[in-house]
Amino acid sequence: MIQSGGYMHFRGLLFDLDGTLVNSLEFVEASWSAWAVRRGYSAQAVRHYLHGKPALSTLRHFMSDASEAAITQEFLALEEYEASHAQGMTAVAGAVAFLRQLNALNVPWGIVTSGSRKVASARIHHAGLPFPDVLVTSEDITYGKPASGTLPVGGETPEMCRSPSASYLRILTLGCCRPRRRKAWLSKSSHRRPGFMI
């Protein structure tokens, strides 16, 4: 990413989903808290641990004595519950308009999340977001956050390798949504990775 005169020049954008594009954090915490209570775990401990990690990682952490078959069964039940209860989920203010503007400007963008594809797709749909050409989910990664294992996957997909000749964008004029955190991410040795992670 290069900044000059209030403009940003970049190769593409990767967005987190929960809490960045979709108002889902309260639902996620309530869902996992209910699971913890049912299973006899500390709801506070589960909420503290789960953010940014694939659901299977959280289940393996708390169900360390369970078989992989039991953990998988638990995961599928949780996944089905979260995917089927996405109705009424809303987009973060400004997110829909911002993503539509990126599409209009032919700016490559994608979504990178530690959630599963089924859950992420349901939330994107019910929040009314444009569906991304690039969607990296827990099925595509080895490690969840805080590890950066999701980023190269998202940045190296063919859709994110496009380099529009006019990718200048004045963020303030677009009414961009306010992200929770921004991480500049550009490797000088690679021209295949997007320049900005939100």
UniProtKB/TrEMBL annotation:
Catalytic EC class: hydrolase
Sorted UniProt keywords? Hydrolase, Metal-binding
Q: EC number(s) for this protein?
A: 3.1.3.-
Record's keyword annotation contains Protease: no
Q: Does the keyword Metal-binding apply?
A: yes
Any single GO molecular-function term of the entry would be: sn-glycerol 3-phosphatase activity
Q: Which domain of life is it from?
A: Bacteria
Parts of the chain that traverse the membrane: none
What InterPro entries is this protein classified in?
Answer: HAD-like_sf, HAD-like_SPP, HAD_2, HAD_sf, PGP-like_dom2
Q: What's this protein's name?
A: Phosphatase YfbT
Gene, per the UniProt record: yfbT_1
